[in-house]
Write a structure and sequence with these properties.
- Helix 3 packs across helix 4 and helix 4 packs across helix 6.
- The protein is mostly helical and 168 residues long.
Length: 168
């Protein structure tokens, strides 16, 4: 029933399972002392971990500063959209942060070399975080600079509008 209760239940289940998925991965990497912004329920779920709940962040003013000051940004896609690149992915790269994502689609259309750093399991995620944290500073700067360049060159809203217009 598209107009009634069944759609609401489906939406709830999708969002709930997605929240459980995000919580699973965030708790898995809490040992690194990560900082989490968002809904106040995070505070309750992270109490017994090394993760720090930081509250809400204003999208236009605070989020870009958070990304710019973060060595790594974790990008966990929606469980029902595993092959959809999130805005977080592009915003964090544009701000100069490394991104570790569970994006399932091929990134060949998104980025040329170097590749997006991906994870699929909790162990993968922890391994990727350790890898990035152990990079030499110059290797880290080369990676984030190149991903920032590609993002600004290929993934701005103006560029997307050009692509849409060319199809219409």
């Amino acid at each position: 029933n598209v107009n009634g209760r069944h759609l609401s239940v489906l939406h709830f289940v999708s969002e709930w399972s997605g929240a459980c998925n995000r919580l699973h991965f965030v708790k898995a990497c809490a040992e690194f002392g990560i900082h989490v912004w968002g809904d106040p329920t995070w505070e309750k779920h992270l109490q017994s971990t090394n993760a720090q709940y930081r509250g809400f962040a204003k999208h236009k003013t605070e989020v870009p500063l958070i990304y710019a000051s973060s060595k790594i940004t974790l990008d966990i896609t929606r469980i029902y959209q595993p092959d959809v690149a999130t805005l977080r992915l592009f915003d964090a790269f544009a701000a100069g942060s490394a991104v570790i994502s569970n994006l399932k689609s091929s990134d060949s259309d998104l980025f040329s070399k170097p590749e997006l750093i991906r994870f699929s399991t909790s162990d993968d995620l922890k391994d990727r975080i350790e890898k990035v944290l152990n990079w030499q500073e110059q290797d880290y700067q080369n990676y984030v600079s190149e991903m920032k360049r590609q993002t600004i060159e290929r993934h701005t809203f103006d560029r997307r509008l050009e692509q849409i217009k060319s199809v219409i």
